[in-house]
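Q: I'm writing up a methods section and want to include an example of the input and output format. Could you take the sequence below and give the corresponding predicted C-alpha coordinates, formatted cleanly so I can copy it straight into the document?
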Amino acid sequence: MKVLSVFKKEIKSYFVSPVAYVVILIFNLICGFIFYALSAYYSIISMRYSYSPYPYFTLSPNEMVARPMFHNMAITSLFVLPLLTMKLFSEERRLGTIELLFTYPLKDSDIYWGKFLACFSIFIIMTFIPFSYMFILEKWVNFDKGVLLNGYFGLLLLGGSFISIGILISSLTESQIISAIITFGTSLLFWIIGWISEISTKYSKFFDFISLYNHYENFPKGILDTRDLIFYLSVLFFFSFLTLRILISKKYRG
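A: Here is the clean output for your methods example:
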Protein backbone atom coordinates (compact mmCIF):
# COMPACT_ATOMS: atom_id res chain seq x y z
CA MET A 1 0.00 0.00 0.00
CA LYS A 2 1.17 3.53 -0.77
CA VAL A 3 0.10 4.70 2.70
CA LEU A 4 2.53 2.17 4.14
CA SER A 5 5.48 3.65 2.25
CA VAL A 6 4.75 7.12 3.67
CA PHE A 7 4.22 5.57 7.10
CA LYS A 8 7.63 3.86 7.03
CA LYS A 9 9.34 7.06 5.91
CA GLU A 10 7.78 9.10 8.74
CA ILE A 11 8.46 6.50 11.42
CA LYS A 12 12.09 6.39 10.33
CA SER A 13 12.33 10.20 10.44
CA TYR A 14 11.00 10.21 14.01
CA PHE A 15 13.63 7.78 15.26
CA VAL A 16 16.52 9.12 13.18
CA SER A 17 16.13 12.44 14.98
CA PRO A 18 15.95 12.66 18.80
CA VAL A 19 12.36 13.95 18.72
CA ALA A 20 10.61 10.64 19.39
CA TYR A 21 13.06 9.59 22.10
CA VAL A 22 12.83 12.93 23.93
CA VAL A 23 9.01 13.10 23.76
CA ILE A 24 8.56 9.49 24.90
CA LEU A 25 11.09 9.98 27.71
CA ILE A 26 9.52 13.22 28.98
CA PHE A 27 6.00 11.80 28.81
CA ASN A 28 6.94 8.65 30.72
CA LEU A 29 8.94 10.51 33.35
CA ILE A 30 5.95 12.74 34.10
CA CYS A 31 3.42 9.89 34.02
CA GLY A 32 5.74 7.60 36.00
CA PHE A 33 6.03 10.17 38.78
CA ILE A 34 2.26 10.74 38.81
CA PHE A 35 1.58 6.99 38.93
CA TYR A 36 4.03 6.56 41.81
CA ALA A 37 2.41 9.43 43.72
CA LEU A 38 -1.10 8.06 43.19
CA SER A 39 -0.09 4.51 44.13
CA ALA A 40 1.77 5.68 47.25
CA TYR A 41 -1.18 7.78 48.36
CA TYR A 42 -3.59 4.88 47.79
CA SER A 43 -1.31 2.57 49.78
CA ILE A 44 -1.06 4.99 52.72
CA ILE A 45 -4.82 5.60 52.84
CA SER A 46 -5.53 1.85 52.56
CA MET A 47 -3.19 1.07 55.46
CA ARG A 48 -4.74 3.84 57.53
CA TYR A 49 -8.31 2.62 57.04
CA SER A 50 -7.39 -1.06 57.46
CA TYR A 51 -6.81 -0.40 61.17
CA SER A 52 -10.10 1.42 61.59
CA PRO A 53 -12.71 -0.58 63.56
CA TYR A 54 -15.45 1.24 61.68
CA PRO A 55 -14.82 0.88 57.93
CA TYR A 56 -17.56 3.03 56.46
CA PHE A 57 -16.51 2.52 52.87
CA THR A 58 -14.09 0.55 50.72
CA LEU A 59 -11.33 2.29 48.79
CA SER A 60 -11.51 1.83 45.05
CA PRO A 61 -8.22 1.67 43.08
CA ASN A 62 -10.22 2.58 39.98
CA GLU A 63 -11.27 5.89 41.52
CA MET A 64 -8.04 6.67 43.38
CA VAL A 65 -5.41 5.48 40.86
CA ALA A 66 -6.75 4.57 37.39
CA ARG A 67 -9.16 7.46 36.84
CA PRO A 68 -6.80 10.31 37.90
CA MET A 69 -3.98 8.56 36.01
CA PHE A 70 -5.93 8.66 32.75
CA HIS A 71 -6.82 12.31 33.29
CA ASN A 72 -3.19 13.20 33.90
CA MET A 73 -2.08 11.21 30.85
CA ALA A 74 -4.60 13.17 28.76
CA ILE A 75 -3.33 16.54 30.03
CA THR A 76 0.31 15.52 29.51
CA SER A 77 -0.55 14.41 25.96
CA LEU A 78 -1.98 17.85 25.30
CA PHE A 79 1.43 19.35 26.13
CA VAL A 80 3.72 16.91 24.29
CA LEU A 81 1.78 15.95 21.15
CA PRO A 82 2.44 19.32 19.44
CA LEU A 83 6.13 18.34 19.52
CA LEU A 84 5.29 15.28 17.40
CA THR A 85 2.94 16.95 14.92
CA MET A 86 4.89 20.19 14.37
CA LYS A 87 7.31 18.66 11.84
CA LEU A 88 4.94 16.61 9.70
CA PHE A 89 4.25 19.25 7.03
CA SER A 90 6.11 22.31 8.35
CA GLU A 91 9.47 20.65 7.76
CA GLU A 92 8.44 19.58 4.26
CA ARG A 93 7.49 23.17 3.44
CA ARG A 94 10.64 24.65 4.97
CA LEU A 95 12.93 22.27 3.07
CA GLY A 96 10.93 22.62 -0.14
CA THR A 97 10.36 18.87 -0.37
CA ILE A 98 6.57 19.13 -0.26
CA GLU A 99 6.48 19.97 -3.99
CA LEU A 100 8.62 16.89 -4.65
CA LEU A 101 6.26 14.83 -2.51
CA PHE A 102 3.34 15.92 -4.69
CA THR A 103 5.15 14.65 -7.81
CA TYR A 104 5.25 11.09 -6.48
CA PRO A 105 2.50 8.68 -7.57
CA LEU A 106 0.72 9.22 -4.28
CA LYS A 107 -2.73 10.50 -3.49
CA ASP A 108 -3.05 13.39 -1.05
CA SER A 109 -4.93 11.03 1.24
CA ASP A 110 -2.00 8.56 1.10
CA ILE A 111 0.39 11.29 2.23
CA TYR A 112 -1.90 12.50 4.99
CA TRP A 113 -2.86 9.13 6.46
CA GLY A 114 0.71 7.85 6.24
CA LYS A 115 1.89 10.80 8.35
CA PHE A 116 -1.10 10.54 10.69
CA LEU A 117 -0.59 6.83 11.35
CA ALA A 118 3.13 7.33 11.97
CA CYS A 119 2.43 10.01 14.58
CA PHE A 120 -0.40 7.97 16.08
CA SER A 121 1.89 4.93 16.36
CA ILE A 122 4.40 6.98 18.37
CA PHE A 123 1.51 8.10 20.57
CA ILE A 124 0.48 4.48 21.19
CA ILE A 125 4.05 3.54 22.15
CA MET A 126 4.30 6.61 24.36
CA THR A 127 1.06 5.96 26.26
CA PHE A 128 1.17 2.17 26.45
CA ILE A 129 4.18 2.19 28.79
CA PRO A 130 2.44 4.07 31.67
CA PHE A 131 -0.80 2.23 30.86
CA SER A 132 1.00 -1.09 31.51
CA TYR A 133 1.96 0.10 35.01
CA MET A 134 -1.63 -0.43 36.14
CA PHE A 135 -1.54 -4.08 35.05
CA ILE A 136 1.68 -4.54 37.02
CA LEU A 137 0.04 -3.00 40.09
CA GLU A 138 -2.87 -5.41 39.65
CA LYS A 139 -0.79 -8.06 41.42
CA TRP A 140 -1.58 -6.22 44.67
CA VAL A 141 -4.87 -4.43 43.95
CA ASN A 142 -8.00 -5.37 42.07
CA PHE A 143 -8.53 -3.10 39.06
CA ASP A 144 -11.57 -3.41 36.85
CA LYS A 145 -10.04 -4.42 33.48
CA GLY A 146 -13.06 -3.03 31.66
CA VAL A 147 -12.44 0.39 33.20
CA LEU A 148 -8.74 0.26 32.28
CA LEU A 149 -9.38 -0.73 28.66
CA ASN A 150 -12.20 1.78 28.26
CA GLY A 151 -10.03 4.55 29.72
CA TYR A 152 -7.16 3.73 27.37
CA PHE A 153 -9.53 3.56 24.39
CA GLY A 154 -10.77 7.05 25.25
CA LEU A 155 -7.19 8.28 25.58
CA LEU A 156 -6.42 6.99 22.06
CA LEU A 157 -9.49 8.76 20.65
CA LEU A 158 -8.46 11.98 22.38
CA GLY A 159 -4.89 11.63 21.11
CA GLY A 160 -6.14 11.08 17.57
CA SER A 161 -8.15 14.32 17.83
CA PHE A 162 -5.11 16.25 19.09
CA ILE A 163 -2.98 14.81 16.28
CA SER A 164 -5.50 15.77 13.57
CA ILE A 165 -5.53 19.34 14.92
CA GLY A 166 -1.72 19.41 14.98
CA ILE A 167 -1.37 18.15 11.42
CA LEU A 168 -3.78 20.82 10.19
CA ILE A 169 -1.74 23.56 11.85
CA SER A 170 1.50 22.03 10.54
CA SER A 171 0.17 22.23 6.98
CA LEU A 172 -0.38 25.99 7.34
CA THR A 173 3.09 27.17 8.38
CA GLU A 174 6.76 26.56 7.62
CA SER A 175 7.87 27.17 11.21
CA GLN A 176 7.82 24.15 13.49
CA ILE A 177 7.90 26.36 16.59
CA ILE A 178 4.86 28.35 15.46
CA SER A 179 3.11 25.11 14.53
CA ALA A 180 3.73 23.65 18.01
CA ILE A 181 2.57 26.81 19.82
CA ILE A 182 -0.63 27.21 17.77
CA THR A 183 -1.39 23.49 18.06
CA PHE A 184 -1.02 23.62 21.82
CA GLY A 185 -3.17 26.75 22.08
CA THR A 186 -5.91 25.33 19.84
CA SER A 187 -5.97 21.97 21.63
CA LEU A 188 -6.05 23.68 25.01
CA LEU A 189 -8.92 25.89 23.87
CA PHE A 190 -10.99 22.86 22.82
CA TRP A 191 -10.06 21.20 26.11
CA ILE A 192 -11.25 24.00 28.40
CA ILE A 193 -13.95 25.63 26.29
CA GLY A 194 -16.65 23.83 28.26
CA TRP A 195 -15.75 26.01 31.26
CA ILE A 196 -17.39 28.96 29.50
CA SER A 197 -20.76 27.25 29.94
CA GLU A 198 -20.55 28.06 33.65
CA ILE A 199 -20.77 31.79 32.91
CA SER A 200 -22.75 31.68 29.67
CA THR A 201 -26.35 30.51 29.54
CA LYS A 202 -27.22 31.19 25.91
CA TYR A 203 -24.55 28.96 24.36
CA SER A 204 -23.90 26.63 27.31
CA LYS A 205 -24.97 23.47 25.50
CA PHE A 206 -22.87 24.34 22.45
CA PHE A 207 -19.69 24.94 24.46
CA ASP A 208 -20.29 21.77 26.44
CA PHE A 209 -20.76 19.81 23.24
CA ILE A 210 -17.52 20.90 21.53
CA SER A 211 -15.40 20.48 24.67
CA LEU A 212 -12.88 17.65 24.29
CA TYR A 213 -12.69 17.32 28.07
CA ASN A 214 -16.43 16.85 28.59
CA HIS A 215 -16.52 13.95 26.13
CA TYR A 216 -13.44 12.36 27.70
CA GLU A 217 -14.78 12.27 31.26
CA ASN A 218 -16.88 9.12 30.79
CA PHE A 219 -14.08 6.90 29.49
CA PRO A 220 -11.98 6.72 32.72
CA LYS A 221 -15.23 5.93 34.57
CA GLY A 222 -15.69 2.83 32.41
CA ILE A 223 -18.64 4.32 30.51
CA LEU A 224 -18.62 3.85 26.74
CA ASP A 225 -21.13 6.32 25.34
CA THR A 226 -21.61 6.17 21.57
CA ARG A 227 -22.13 9.95 21.54
CA ASP A 228 -18.59 10.45 22.84
CA LEU A 229 -17.24 7.94 20.34
CA ILE A 230 -19.00 9.64 17.42
CA PHE A 231 -17.84 13.06 18.63
CA TYR A 232 -14.14 12.13 18.66
CA LEU A 233 -14.35 10.39 15.30
CA SER A 234 -16.13 13.44 13.89
CA VAL A 235 -13.41 15.78 15.22
CA LEU A 236 -10.69 13.54 13.79
CA PHE A 237 -12.24 13.31 10.33
CA PHE A 238 -13.28 16.97 10.25
CA PHE A 239 -9.74 18.26 10.82
CA SER A 240 -8.39 15.56 8.49
CA PHE A 241 -10.80 16.78 5.79
CA LEU A 242 -9.63 20.38 6.26
CA THR A 243 -5.98 19.32 5.98
CA LEU A 244 -6.66 17.39 2.78
CA ARG A 245 -8.42 20.46 1.30
CA ILE A 246 -5.35 22.57 2.13
CA LEU A 247 -3.00 20.02 0.56
CA ILE A 248 -5.07 19.92 -2.61
CA SER A 249 -5.14 23.73 -2.85
CA LYS A 250 -1.35 23.95 -2.37
CA LYS A 251 -0.82 21.22 -4.92
CA TYR A 252 -2.75 23.04 -7.63
CA ARG A 253 -1.25 26.42 -6.76
CA GLY A 254 2.22 24.86 -6.97
